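**User:** Once you have settled down, spend some time on the protein underneath, comparing sequence with structure tokens, and judge whether sequence predicts the tokens.
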Amino acid sequence: MSVLRVGGILLATIVVQLTVFVDVRAFGVAPELLALVAVLAGFLAGPERGATVAFVAGLLWDVWLPTPLGLAAMAFATVAFAVGSIGAGLFHDSRLQISGLAVFGTAAAVIAYALLGELVGQRGMVDLELLRIAAIAGLLNGILAPLMIRPLRWALHVPASTRLPAPTRP
């Protein structure tokens, strides 16, 4: 069942984020594994299904963050929907493109999270340091993306070398 598989991936991802990447950082920044799951879910499963997975990933991450519940969920779902919508015709299933998509998608998710935080009253989230954090987190997730794509394919029942097509409008 896909729901159990995705739940298992999300649970394993949050455990790795909260155990390994609490101490392991590059230039003071940890990868954003749940944002990576969100971006790749949008890419693999399309805009609607990917946004749903991303929203659940964001809610799971929101439990541990000191910001309002639902902030990461909204940011991740928005980015996953955009990746699923835009990426359908532009990107193929090559390692380089998946890594590039992870870099830019993660950076977008980090920036969207900060911007939404500012909108709901979380002051101090948007500054020049945000760009550095978004860039480093994106690069780290770009490195990790090829490792994460296979488990997500399995969880979402997306066969290798195929993606679900973007929905067409009549």
User: Anything to note?
Assistant: The helical segments are 2-19, 33-45, 47-62, 71-90, 95-119, 128-156. The chain has one domain: 2-155.
